[in-house]
Amino acid sequence: MRLVIIGAGFAGMYAALSAARLREIQGVSPEALEIALVAPEPTLVVRPRLYEPKPETLTAPLLGVLEAIDVSYVQGMVETVDTKSSMVKIATAKGAKKTLSYDRLVVTTGSRLFRPNIPGLAEHGFSVDSLDDAIALDKHLHGLAKRPATTGRDTVVVAGGGFTGIEAATEMPARLRDILGTNARTRVIIVERNDAIAPDMGAGPRPVIEEALRKVGVETRIGAGVASLDESGVNLSSGEHIETETVIWAAGIRAAPLTTQIPAERDSFGRLLVDRRLQVTGVPGVFAAGDAARAACDDEGNYALMSCQHATRMGAFAGNNAAAELLGLATRPYHQKTYVTCLDLGEAGALFTRGWERNVEMVGDIAKKTKREINTVWIYPPRAERAAALASADPERVTDL
Fold first, then answer.
1. What is the mean pLDDT of residues 220-240?
2. ∠ at Cα 23 (17, 29), nearest 5°?
3. H-type helices in 161-242, by residue range?
4. Got the DSSP string for 129-180?
5. Most buried among 154, 249, 327, 362, by the most CB within 10 A?
């Protein structure tokens, strides 16, 4: 029997750990139940940290962990999923093609930044969506020091006032000072199309966020969107032109396009609809987790968000359930009633909220300490030691905050 997992992000990593854990508990050998993880590199990109400096350091190796738990790593990119024949077609790094059959499949292909067809965005926009994107932005920022001191050089516009946009913007003043010096007349501006900053976080946390923006010197343009970009700067839907040489796009994500190859219904974000066991609705033998799946967290109408907090736990349940089906065991319904957010606010500290209502629990330096622990400890892979790695993947305990 073979269980194939597509993707080495947070959901894919925990799907592999959890499936291997159940296999170990049941005393089944790796030969009797092969678990294979397919990804371009055996590396976890610590995506929630890509707004930080030195993004090239924000990865964690997975090969040692996978070897410790007897999970096979298959290097390559899945190009085709054929659910009728239970096969995936893989393109290797050297350009060769190979196929891999599966008895159960877990799709954890993550998400991609949504880039609308705005004039000039592809040519002049940056992002912190992927490792390559974040490295390109960091290189660009350091290159600004070699340019003449102008308003455009010293101004950064962040398009999108949600979680990612706020973290990128509040980190930016310190990054610019380190690069351009304290005498540079730097400006950082968030442009948000909605009528309030942090539109999805609600009214409770907003005053804390707005005060933090004032404290670090980040300006906002509310109720306006980006209409176009060119070499001179950005034009807003309000008619305002902002002179800038750096525009960071942080306005939405969509599920990775491989989900379109699964013959199932998807939501407006491209996520596959799954049942409470995280099986793709109407497609036996295929599970999905993380940003690839729209999953109910509870019976109260709350659905998993596209975040590593939900991806890790969803991955653990999906991996466990896919392995359980193959071993003739009962599956477990995914649930995640606890929900917290910890928003980095740069030199203003952080904001920690609990519950779907986002009740403010910690702010400032105290919340910043928690944010650092999340970013440097909690979201990293377990150590590459078999017992510890398997113990980390109990679905009922993963991300149980």
1. 96
2. 120
3. 163-180, 206-216
4. SSHHHHHHHHHHHHHGGGS---TTTTEEEEE--SHHHHHHHHHHHHHHHHHH
5. 249
For 95, other C-beta atoms within 10 Å of its C-beta total 6
Residue 40's contacts (CB-CB under 8 Å, 6 or more residues apart) are 75, 76, 77, 93
Place of tokens 């900053």: 197
Using alpha carbons, select from 258, 41, 254, 65 the residue that is nearest to residue 132. Answer: 41
Query: What pLDDT, in 10s, does the model give residues 307-346?
Result: 999 999 999 999 999 999 999 999 999 999 889 999 999 9
Six-digit token pair at 238? 């309000």
For helices 163-180 and 206-216, give the axis angle rounded to 10 degrees: 10
Q: How many CB atoms lie within 10 A of CB 136?
A: 15
Q: Which DSSP letter does residue 259 get?
A: G
Give me 351's structure tokens. 């904001």
